[in-house]
Design goal:
Elements lengths: L2 H14 L5 E5 L5 E5 L2 E3 L7 E5 L1 H9 L4 H6 L3 E5 L1 H4 L3 H4 L1
Parallel strand pairs: 1-4
Antiparallel strand pairs: 1-2, 2-3, 4-5
Helix pairs in contact: 1-2
């Protein structure tokens, strides 16, 4: 799954329930997706919470094949900024 496809999937969740805060998925050299309000942007913007994760692991996370708590514990994703914002991701993925 490409970042464009991931952003489209996340956009569907935002269409149902926009976020009150902003979250950025930083995939390093592959790029970034920033979720703000009701829009998924395919660029690197300032955000309340940044999740650093590889593109393959982000694909697994979105598909429900990677548990976010396990990924965090194993170092497959790193969270900086407001951790409580990261916890709101389940509303997009559910």
């Amino acid at each position: 799954m490409t970042l464009t496809e991931i952003a489209a999937t996340l956009q569907k969740g935002l269409d149902r329930k926009p976020l009150e805060n902003s979250i950025k998925f930083d995939c390093g050299d592959q790029g970034a997706i920033t979720l703000e309000g009701g829009t998924a942007h395919l660029d690197d913007r300032e955000a309340d919470c940044t999740i650093r994760i590889s593109e393959p692991n982000l694909t697994k996370l979105i598909a429900g094949k990677l548990n976010p708590m396990t990924a965090f514990a194993m170092g497959k994703l790193k969270v900086s900024g407001d951790m409580s914002v990261a916890m709101k991701l389940s509303q997009l993925l559910g």
